[in-house]
Design a protein that fits this description.
Layout lengths: L1 H26 L11 H15 L3 H22 L4 H18 L6 H16 L7
Helix pairs in contact: 2-3, 2-5, 3-4, 4-5
């Protein structure tokens, strides 16, 4: 009889330890994945910022179309990695696109939205201000 109790104890102890660890691990906050290498997007936005700061808003509007195309093409690969970060960048992107595509864009608004977009590209977890 003692051997049966000993066998049960030897089986129950590792099962309890494993179960406890699994419960702890499943309740720990999951680290979200980053969006990968965003340097190509940052390069394009840097180009757009340079054009806008020189006052060439029509060239900036043309160059941001390259960004929009690249961003849209990358959506299916990037969006699933971190929905929240992707949404932050997408919202900042939309604001910059709207600012540049107004019939008479405001240089000040364009520069602010581009700076906000670059800030979000540098830190996607932080929504644009």
């Amino acid at each position: 009889m003692r051997q049966i109790f000993l066998a049960i104890a030897l089986i129950a102890a590792p099962v309890a330890a494993f179960t406890g660890f699994e419960l702890y691990a499943n309740n720990a906050p999951a680290k979200t994945a980053d969006l990968g290498d965003l340097s190509s997007f940052k390069t394009i936005i840097g180009d757009v910022q340079a054009l806008a700061s020189k006052g060439d808003l029509s060239a900036a509007a043309k160059r941001i179309t390259d960004y929009e195309t690249a961003w849209d093409q990358a959506e299916t690969a990037i969006r699933p990695l971190n929905q929240n970060d992707w949404t932050n960048i997408d919202a900042a992107s939309d604001a910059a696109l709207r600012a540049l595509r107004q019939s008479t864009p405001s240089a000040d608004k364009v520069n602010k939205t581009l700076a906000a977009l670059m800030a979000v590209l540098n830190n996607p977890a932080q929504p644009a201000q």
